[in-house]
Structures are given as structure tokens and as C-alpha cells.
Amino acid sequence: MRLSCVYTDLDGTLLGRGSSLFRDPEGGFSLAQARALEACHRAGAEVVIMSGRREPQVHEAARLMGQTSYIYEAGCAFAIEGETTLMTGEMAPNEDGTIYEQIEQRGIPKLLFEHFEGRLEYHAPWHHGRVLSHLFRGKVDVEEANTLLHERGDTDLRLLDNGAIGRPMPTVEGRTHAYHLVPKQVSKAAAVAGHARARGYDPRECIAVGDSVEDLEVAAAVGRFFVVANGPEHDPGLRAALPNWDNVTVTEGSMGDGFYEAVVSSLMERRP
Q1: Both 83 and 190 in a single domain?
Q2: Which residue range(s) make up the domain with 159?
Q3: Could you tell me which of 80, 148, 143, 71 has the C-alpha nearest to residue 113?
Q4: DSSP code of 155?
Q5: What CATH number corresponds to the domain at position 134?
Q6: One domain, residues 241 and 198
Q7: Count of domains observed in the chain
Q8: 204-258 tens-digit pLDDT
Q9: CA quadruple 137, 138, 143, 144: dihedral positive or negative?
Q10: pLDDT tens for residues 1-48?
């Protein structure tokens, strides 16, 4: 069976140290990611970024890699050849503003900041310019946060964990995580499935690569999922979730090295 598409997270996965396409996990110069992208091109496999970043950032990253599809704001939407599809369900931009503004007007970020005082804050400066979701950093219990939202009646939203990051907080012990406040239907898995349907891909012909619990859920939408080694190394929650999936492989390499490993091994397995 051919490889039709590779869905990949950016930070901590495709990108190396400093969020660079040409750096390895230690910061040394590397062509591993570029070679993996070249291998996909030669095999006719599309590469689709699935990122928590806002649309202009993801669009530019995809353009630099020669790709015309991408998923942004943690699965809130995907774009194909310049056409955008929202995955936000009944929540949509309206006369009250963007989805970001509607959530802010309801006082939900303030509620979370007060409830998790000292443990949650905006992920500055990357929280600016968002239109579909809110982006935080810190270290909180996602289930506790979502129970709080449910009890308050905000059942149309959820907080999701997009993985460990390298930005410390003086009030948080250990590595902080990136969190997204999104409409409840939103997930990278749903966006990947939607993109694959739009492209006409058989999910069995697709793989995905990531480093977080939210990324791991994409395993349900593809034939095989690869977790780069740095993911479970830094995130106990991700380590605990791995046994729940029978189509998941943890790579030996971290970040871009792991992405290269995932692509090359998949292409080798599918060679006629």
C-alpha cells in the first residue's frame, strides 16, 4: 500500500532546537528533516502540518516547504489550496466577533487564570493574533479544567494539552505545557480525518508524527502513528497513554531525527 500523506506536528517534532527546520535536538546543523521531506516528494506523499500555531505562521511554514495544505490552531481549521474549512462546529465568527473574542467576552480565560492561579498564563507572545482559540502555558489538570467549564455551563468548550514546552514559569515545577481552549468538537484528529476525506486519502495510506497527548489522538485517524522520543521522555501523561494504542511506534530519534525515522521506515515498508 502506498504512502499518500504524512501529517506532522511542528514544534518538538518536525522542528529541532529553537524551532528550526535545520537543527537537531542538540542544536547542531542537520539536513535530516529536509531529506525526509525530499523523500516524501519523490514518493508522491503529501506532507501536512498539524499545529497549534495560528494560521499565518502555519501557512508560511507550509509554503516554505512547498506544501499547499495545513491544519492550524490545534485543529480548529484546515486549508487546502487556499480554501479554508472550519472544524469548530456551531461556534463561528459572527457579529459578536471572532471565536477568540466570543470566548474572551464570556470571561472564560479569566475564570481559568483565577482557578489555576500561578499555574496558568497566556503563552506570550504567541497568544496574540489568534482568531479561533486561546493559547496558554503552565501546568494544570486538564480534566479538572474541563469539569470546571462543564459545571459553569460552558459545555461547548474544552481545554486540551498540546504537550511539554521549553518555556519555564517561576511558579511551576518542571516543564510547562502548552494548552489550547477550543470549541469542544475541535481536535487534531478530527482535522486530519477531515483533510483526508477532502483529499480522498485512505486513512490506511496515511501516517502521522507528533510529541503530545493531543497529537497521539490522531492515531485513530491514520494507519500508523509515530511518537518522537522526546515526547514521552518529557511527558509522563503521554507515556501512560501509549499502551492504549496498537498502531503507535515510539521512534529512537528525537524531534526532526524522529520525523526522518518515521518517514523513511514507512516508505521502506511500503516499497513494492
Answers
A1: yes
A2: 99-183
A3: 148
A4: T
A5: 3.90.1070
A6: yes
A7: 2
A8: 999 999 999 999 999 999 999 999 999 999 999 999 999 999 999 999 999 999 9
A9: negative
A10: 799 999 999 999 999 999 999 999 999 999 999 999 999 999 999 999
